[in-house]
Design a protein that fits this description.
about 45% helix, about 575 residues, DNA-binding, 5-stranded mixed sheet, 5-stranded parallel sheet, single chain, Beta Polymerase, domain 3, Beta Polymerase, domain 2, alpha/beta, DNA polymerase, domain 1
DNA sequence: GCCGTTTTCGGCCCGACTGTTTTCAGTCG
């Protein structure tokens, strides 16, 4: 049995929670949480590192003790300290930590005094009025906890980035109606363009705070107000999303933006650097004693602590600070760098628009080239094309190309990788195409080795160009299939194959961490929309966001190249 | 529990809001 990084991180987090409930040293708890984050963000499997005899102490934030604990965990699947603590503090208390308004101290009290262990226990205790009899608990706290339980059971999941955009747009439009508002930005994980967001953090600079807050809490979509003060307020929208508003003076906008954008780990790291330089960073600015050295812009603050400006997408404490210090940050790719799209579908299979309509939309989007990649026969639910169907499409593309002025249509296919690693179309036909996009669309549950070798065997075919949605995950819906991604990236590099970053908002596959791994290994990537309708070409933006989070630059992505150069790359 | 061109011991980011209590602890970001 191999234990995955996410499971190791989960166990460390659970241990940290229980320790916190027991009242352990807060810095020790932080060390465990920090280690959980480091492991969770790692692109390589800890189990592999351990098997190779690597010393985990080399990882930042992991010392001798944690290294030994994690090694044991990777080897045996057990974390003895966790087992030991669970013997006296029930593991189920972890569930209570997820409830808004309930932290370790209160959980400790309700467990010790009332024997409450689960959310159900808690609900019934509140119903019987047992909670409000405890010292430090009152009626309002009770109501808040009840609301927290309700909110948790109703809206457990984070929301996909694409789904939150209209919410942000209408809210910011509303806030701008207030005369006092000068600048406005949606910060938080939204600004870092994370694939999902948990809540919204809106930052406003204004001449006067009070009227902005008053205006905010009157927004028509608000279900309830969580808190309302003189500089910040928090609400739930009717959709369940929490929105935090923070208002600062224009002179502090940069400092507040930095603070509110996060990530928390990035903030802690840069504030630590400030402390080392005898400076202090807070949401109002950067200070030497009483003297303010900056705060109007984020750049000012980074500069004061000797760092070049760090793009929001990189602020995850994954090496960006060291890179900023050495002036070695990547020049991140932008939407403008993209020249074409290498994956889309038409009505020939499961797209909603004709070849002509897709071509027109791609041209209007500004593309120089577009690959038409309908499904192959094996994917019967999508009415995949057989040999004859593909040959018909090839002819139609030739005809259309002779009419098009600005755009070139590339002949292609989204061909299934079959169980034995062969492609679902004879090579003799694949050779007629400009490129191939190859996908796994069935047998998601093969064992890791088998699935990995299925893909690598497919790449051995010289007709293989792009591996589409390489891990197969669907955000909030389906786990990635079991594959050795590092081996696949190496195999792609050796064979001149390309890895796709599929820009569909529920795929974003490869994810940010694997994009960076591919870049570090030196494999090429393509950012493609997999558009099934004309409007979906706009999904390219989401691919770009994810690519930027993965440190990708223009040169790492093949569809930033002019057509001629691209064709050379596709020759393998 | 981690970490070190001030330190191998003594620090560890910083502030706002709420509820309950009467000066502050707990929670959150």
């Amino acid at each position: 049995m191999t234990i995955h990084n996410s499971e190791i991180a989960d166990k460390l987090n659970r241990l940290a929670n229980l320790l916190e409930i027991e009242g352990a040293n807060p810095f020790r708890i932080r060390a465990y949480r920090n280690a959980a984050r480091i492991i969770g963000n790692l692109s390589k499997d800890v189990s592999d590192l351990v098997a190779q005899g690597e010393n985990l102490c080399d990882l930042p934030g992991i010392g001798q003790d944690l290294s030994e604990k994690i090694t044991t965990l990777a080897q045996t699947g057990e974390l003895p300290l966790l087992t030991q603590i669970e013997a006296r503090t029930p593991a189920i208390l972890n569930d209570l930590m997820k409830i808004e308004g309930l932290g370790p101290k209160r959980i400790q009290v309700i467990y010790k005094k009332l024997g409450i262990k689960s959310i159900n226990d808690l609900r019934s205790a509140i119903g019987k009025g047992r909670l409000r009899r405890l010292h430090g608990f009152g009626e309002k706290t009770e109501q808040k906890i009840l609301q927290g339980i309700e909110h948790l059971t109703e809206y457990g999941q984070r929301i996909k980035l694409a789904e939150i955009i209209p919410v942000v747009e209408s809210l910011t439009r509303y806030l701008k109606n207030n005369q006092a508002v000068k600048e406005i930005e949606c910060a938080g994980s939204f600004r870092r363009r994370k694939e999902t967001v948990g809540d919204l953090d809106i930052l406003v600079s204004a001449k006067e705070n009070k009227t902005v807050i008053e205006h905010f809490v009157k927004y028509g979509e608000i279900a309830d107000i969580i808190s309302e003060g003189s500089t910040r307020a928090a609400v739930h929208l009717r959709s369940g999303i929490q929105v935090d508003l923070r208002v600062v003076s224009p002179g502090s906008f940069g400092a507040a933006l930095l603070y509110f954008t996060g990530s928390k780990e990035h903030n802690i790291a840069i504030r630590k650097i400030a402390v080392q330089k005898n400076l202090k960073i807070n949401e109002y600015g950067i200070f030497k004693g009483e003297k303010e050295l900056g705060g109007r812009t984020e750049e000012e603050i980074y500069k004061q602590i000797g760092l070049s400006y760090i793009e929001p997408e990189l602020r995850e404490d994954r090496g960006e600070i060291a890179a900023a210090r050495k002036k070695q940050l990547p020049k991140l790719i932008t939407l403008n760098d993209i020249r074409g799209d290498l994956h889309c579908h038409t009505t020939a299979t499961n797209g909603t628009a004709s070849l002509e309509a897709m071509a027109k939309a791609a041209e209007e989007f500004g593309h120089e080239y577009l690959a038409i990649t309908d499904h192959s026969e094996h994917l019967s639910v999508a009415h995949g094309l057989d040999k004859k169907g593909l040959l018909t499409q090839i002819k139609a593309i030739d005809k259309l190309n002779s009419k098009l002025k600005k755009l070139v249509i590339l002949k292609s296919i989204d061909v299934d990788i079959l169980e034995d690693g062969s492609l679902d179309m004879p090579d003799s036909i694949l050779k007629e195409l400009d490129l191939t996009v190859c996908s796994i669309h069935n047998l998601f549950n093969l064992p890791l080795k088998k699935q990995t070798e299925r893909i690598i065997r497919a790449m051995d075919n010289p007709c293989f160009n792009i591996l589409s949605h390489p891990t197969g995950r669907l955000i909030n819906k389906r786990q990635p299939y079991a594959i050795d991604i590092e081996r696949i990236i190496h195999a792609a590099k050796e064979r001149g194959c390309i890895l796709e970053l599929n820009a569909q908002p529920d795929r974003l596959d490869l994810n940010d961490i694997y994009c960076k791994l591919a870049k570090d290994i030196g494999a090429r990537l393509a950012i493609s929309t997999d558009a099934h309708s004309p409007s979906q070409f706009a999904y390219m933006q989401f691919g770009i966001y994810q690519a930027r989070r993965g440190w990708l630059e223009k040169a790492d992505v093949v569809n930033t190249r002019p057509l001629k150069e691209l064709m050379k790359i596709l020759k393998r």
